[in-house]
Amino acid sequence: MDLEQALKDMSSYKFGQSRKSLVAIGNFVRDSYNKPAEREQLRKRLAGFLSSDATADSKRFACEQLSIIGTAEEVPALAKLLTDEDLSHPARIALERILDAAAGDALRYSLSKTKGKLLIGAINSLGERREEASAEALLAFLNNSDEQVAGTAAAALGKIGGREAIRALIAARSSASPKLRPIIADALLACAERLLKNGRKEAAKRIYEGLASPDEAREVQEAARRGLKAVEQ
Amino acid sequence: MSVNGRITRRDFLRTAAAAIAAPYVTSASSIGSEARPSPSARVTLGCIGVGGRGTDVMREFLGNADAQVIAVCDVFEKNREGAKRALERHYAAEMEKGAYKGCAAYNDFRELLARDDIDAVLIATPDHWHALLGIAAAQAGKDMYVEKPLAVNIGEGQALRDAVRRYGRVFQFGTQQRSDRNFRFACELVRNGRIGELKTIKVGAPASGACGIEPAMPVQPGFDYDMWLGPAPWSPYTEKRCQTPFWYFISDYTMGFISGWGIHHVDIAQWGNGADMTVPLEYEGEGVFPEDGLCDTAMEWNVECKYANGVKMSFTDNGKNPQGVRFEGTEGWVFVERGVIDANPKSLLTAVIGPNDIHLGEEKGHCRDFLDGVKTRKQPVSPIESAHHSNSICQLSDIAIRTKRKLTWNPGLERFINDPEADRFLSRAMRSPWHL
Questions:
Q1: Do B429 and A96 touch (CB under 8 A)?
Q2: Residues of chain A positioned with their CB less than 8 A from the CB of B425
Q3: Residue A5 pLDDT > 50
Q4: Contact across the interface for A128 and B429, Cβ inside 8 Å
Q5: Considering the entire predicted model, what is its pTM?
Q6: Do A219 and B140 touch (CB under 8 A)?
Q7: Does domain A135-233 correspond to CATH entry 1.10.10?
Q8: Which residue in the set B139, B291, B428 is minimally distant from A93, CB to CB?
Q9: Interface list for A 54-73 with B (CB within 8 A)
């Protein structure tokens, strides 16, 4: 199947139909490695799908391929899908994988445009990207009235780390609900591990000492005590 | 270790194991003859995922007198109610005595993990749930037996490894061949130099299947499809998507048999090579994928790997390398598969592994090994580190055949060298609200 036919068939693809065009596109994408001109054409065509009247299933597949070859240039097209209930997740798959800062910017911008599961998804993706630039934006969600949003922000900050994130997590821990407390504790444990790995023993020790408190769940106390032993080694 | 002055269930189990070591660390052959420990001295288990494989492993646990399954969880109502009934039949004698409190059946794993009276969990769901469930279990303070493969990408495997380490959990991977006499003996022969210097390992595993185009349809009653999908991308429901064997061959949930089956023999290759703490550095290969239909994982594959110590591994479907593991050294070879062991020279088959030689594990069942680990706090024969590495080999092989490029891996950083595009395959965003 040639590329033009594959793209044409792909635009009308719906689940339950033949996937041959999708398989063909996937092969073109793979085989365009080290062929910059072909690769650029494919990226543009796939990004073009996202704002066309192509089917939702077709757009999902386009997002999947852009997660492999997408660049900063395709970020705007992907970012528009972050408010779409059906396509936000496929768009995030691509935006998590595109290393360019533009992808992080797009996800941070969407925080004020989304709510519920879409907001939670964007927060998660920012956590996975681990960009320090996201910490400030996520701090605001630590005290969100929706505990799922707050917990997600805590987990994300645990992945990002950094002084501000750790300070905010410690502050949030003191007034956290029983449901949020273990999530915040896990985030702090992750931060402490990274500090220890980077040779910042005293900073790690302070976190572990706080989490070894009898106020914490048994699992957290034990993890903190193991951390303190590791600090001493 | 007591917390807040209380003796926890785990403290009690550990103390009991240390004080009365012999009856608990016992061979499978004597399980049926030992008296049933009191309920408080049993390891309590919750089983998450009680389909075909889950109930097989659950039954193996039931064969251990010091284990008690007190809860099951499955998003298929017929699976969880069927497992509950089977457990109640199994514990019927205790029910008659009034000593049995019954088995709970949950749709949502979070309810099971929230129970303080559950020591450990069996995780036997489809692959795309393994990492999330394992992480949640670790955070809830549960030890775990996790069916293979570990995860659907390297990022998930790393997160689960980190969680198991962080919370100090006992972890057994479902690579039960490590508890099989032939596989262990074959690896001991290799590790003790009985075939000379190991040069090549040849691994063959069953190929993935495929199926045709399937239509979207209404979700069947009694099935929580949204929960079944969990972190995987949303797709319209069709019955085969969620049925064995077909979900095994859909990349949203698995890598196909390159990991789903392949990991068993890759794990043995690792064990024999003494490579549990690392993986091959180089991967190059090709695969054959379905051109249409519901399934999209490699039906055939042929991957060449190379370890830092120079050992080469050929990892293929069983249309190329015979199914099993063949270790080839400078002074002979040994081949092992389920129910089969062969060697050259033949004298190796009756060789004795002496007291000063390397010994790998003990003669006991895989579930027994896990239960002993829960009680003694010693890691079983398939701990998280070896699990993550064996799993990584399957994932890296899959990436190599999908990209059709020679890939070089940095095992310290757990990234590819000079291939940021291949790095993109190492993780995948989860469907909201799920996250690592």
A1: yes
A2: 68
A3: yes
A4: yes
A5: 0.94
A6: yes
A7: no
A8: B428
A9: 60, 67-69
Check residue B92 and give its pLDDT.
84
Per-residue pLDDT for B238 more than 80?
yes
Instruction: Determine the average pLDDT of the residues in A194-222.
Output: 96
Spatial strand order of the sheet with B171-173 comes to: B104-106, B67-73, B43-48, B120-123, B143-146, B171-173
Give the mean pLDDT of B114-133.
97
Closest residue of chain B to A181, computed from CA coordinates = B139
Q: What pLDDT was estimated at residue B9?
A: 64
Delineate the domains of chain B, giving CATH numbers in brackets.
9-177 (3.40.50.720), 182-357+385-426 (3.30.360.10)
Cβ contact A222–B1 (<8 Å): yes
Q: What residues of chain A, 114 to 173, have a C-beta less than 8 Å from chain B?
A: 117-118, 120-121, 124-125, 127-128, 148, 152, 155-156
The Cα of A92 is separated from the nearest Cα of chain B by a number of Å equal to 6
Confidence band of B419 (pLDDT split at 50, 70, 90): very high
Dig out the tokens for B114 from the structure: 């929230």
Distance from CA of A14 to the nearest CA of B (A): 10
Q: What is the 3-state secondary structure (H, E, C) of chain B?
A: CCECCECCHHHHHHHHHHHCHHHHCCCHHHHHHCCCCCHHHCEEEEEECCCHHHHHHHHHHHCCCCEEEEEEECCEHHHHHHHHHHHHHHCHHHHHHCCCCCCEEECCHHHHHCCCCCCEEEECCCHHHHHHHHHHHHHCCCEEEECCCCCCCHHHHHHHHHHHHHCCCCEEECCHHHHCHHHHHHHHHHHCCECECEEEEEEEECCCCCCCCCCCCCCCCCECHHHHHCCCCCCCCCHHHHCCCHHHHCCCCCCCHHHHCHHHHHHHHHHHHCCCCCCCCEEEEEEECCCCCCCCCCCEEEEEEECCCCCEEEEEECCCCCCEEEEEECCEEEEEECCEEEEECHHHHHCCCCCCCCCCCCCCCHHHHHHHHHHHCCCCCCCHHHHHHHHHHHHHHHHHHHHCCCEEEECCCCEECCCHHHHHHHCCCCCCCCCC
Q: How many angstroms away from the CA of A144 is the closest CA of chain B?
A: 16
Q: Testing the interface with B: which of A43, A60, A68, A218 to mutate, by most B Cβ within 10 A? A: A218
Chain B residues within an 8 Å CB radius of A89 = 233-234, 429, 431-432
Helix (H) or strand (E) holding A42: helix A36-50
Kindly tell me the burial class for residue A204, based on how many C-beta atoms sit within 10 Å of its own C-beta (0-12, 13-18, 19 or more): buried
- Residues B209 and B63: beta-carbon distance below 8 Å: no
